[in-house]
Amino acid sequence: MTPAIQVLTVDAAGTLVQPWPSVGAVYGKTARDHGISVEDEEVNDQFLTVFAKIQKNKKITQGEEKDFWREVVSKVFEPFADGQDIDPIFEILWNLFAEGKHWRVAKNAESTLRTLKQRGYKLAVLSNNDSRLRSVLEDHKIGSLFDHLFISSELGVEKPDQAIFQAVEKKFNLPPSSFMHLGDSHSRDFEGAKSAGWSALLYGKPVIEKEQIISFPELLKYLP
Questions:
Q1: Within this chain, do residues 125 and 200 fall inside the same structural domain, yes or no?
Q2: pTM score, whole prediction
Q3: Quick one: pLDDT at residue 57?
């Protein structure tokens, strides 16, 4: 890309790590264990709808991280629960997704990031996530790959707000031109980083940008 890049930041959920086997599968099984009859696929669809809606609500996203997810889980199961108290299910799900076994690291991500470290790049996670991400990365033994973890719930600001990118710049004491961000959200990751003056790569399919990769080893072309 450019020799000016010194730091690569990587999004977490959807990029570096993926829910395993899926959000719908984990939510569905937990709900059925508590007497709620629901299919994994319909729960997954409901989750995507609810999450997208709640994520736009600043009152919720800027509150306590656990309250955000309690609201998500409550709304996901609202059509299926017939008035049943969802809080016990929420508590179980909260703890399940703090464990590495319910996440998978993207294929070849670890080896690619290790190569980039050997090439002299600084690495950081920049995620619209919560503090459970720390235990997930430690369970997968990849937390030590990163110089810093920038987690929105701890910083009180989310991508694509430029303030979160500026917080990264301040920590590394480097200008925007020194950074590249990789993430799977076009609006939050790709456009957010670009608006902050960073280089950006979109991750995943479908391919909609020239600056996009679908596998981690492709990073090595951009960061020689």
A1: yes
A2: 0.90
A3: 65
